[in-house]
Amino acid sequence: MTRILLVSGSGGVGKTTVAATTGLAASRRGLRTLVLSFDSTRDLSASFGLEVPVLPGASGLPVRLNDHLHLQELDVPSELQRRWSEGRGEVAALLGGGLEDVTAEEVALTPGLDALLALLVLGDYLRARTYEFIIIDGPGTGDALRFVGGADAVSWYARRSRAPEQSARRARPSRTNPDVLHGASDKLMDVGALLRDPTVTTLRLVTTHDSRAEQATRRACTAFSLQGIALDGIVLNRLVPAGTDEVLERHPAVENLQRLVGPIPVTGIALQAGEVVGEGTLEAFSTLLYRGEDPSRLMVIHSAHGIGKDAVDVYRLEVKLPFVSKEEVTLSRREAELVIQVGAFRRNLLLPRMVAPLATVGASMDGDKLVVEFKKERV
Q1: What pLDDT does 171 receive?
Q2: What is the pTM of this model?
Q3: Residues 305-375, CATH architecture
Q4: Quick one: which of 12, 123, 145, 237 has the fewest CB in 10 Å?
């Protein structure tokens, strides 16, 4: 099974450096590794010291850096053109149908298309088992959340497209074959399931030491956990040591953040003297970051979501929601969906088949976990 690591954080905190370092360190261990970015800034190529104009000329295809390492900066127009020429039906269906007569160039302007194409590309690699380790160099936290939630959004649309009343409401009928939409949706749901499997996919957040970054880290922990993504580590980057002999694990900022996140390991990295660009400096950075350990390892194994049976006909759903109080959570049911709203963050959670027919009978916060109970109604 391919191991997936999502690297995310606010802009400018060094997440691309962490992703590039992780990829290089994994390749040194002989793992077939891909670092995949769908950020338009081309920072990933710059981290390896490559000339930025080289990659657009390669149309966003993987670039070989050594025998075990490829990097790929997704080029949305090129990737869309390839898929459009191979058969536009799947992409058109995923974008809502009715696109049979438009060009790829027009569709390229669709908001969120980069995340959708990244999911499709990731799915291709997972099915082909091309790589043993895939690192997603995510864009900013908001776009990364749209990426991990993309499969859910497509599934939501596909489920509603089955309803006859939805078809009747369309002002302009689409020639999209519903089987194409449902087949493409199923593929993305398989990818979404792997992204939410804590034995396959984990998140490493990158942040810095300032009040705004700390607040952003708290929000990211909550939002990714709501989406079912397991956090296995935080990199606290660009620390300024108080003294030349200070051990960064005892840096006050590291200790404070460690207290906040509990069992999630926090790694402090000192502010570097120069830019971390090129394989030499990335190698040195990997020594600080991983200290000879396997970068693909699961630093901590835990599930963001879990469901179990409490008693006969009683089920208990647990959703890890760090830094959230009971008053901030709003719940509602829509048939087989549980809608969880936490501030600006929302998740339409499709309930398992054994739970979907049951009534929601209670909800509470148990520490940092939202607990929702379901029970079969007695007739």
Answers
A1: 42
A2: 0.89
A3: Sandwich (2.60)
A4: 12
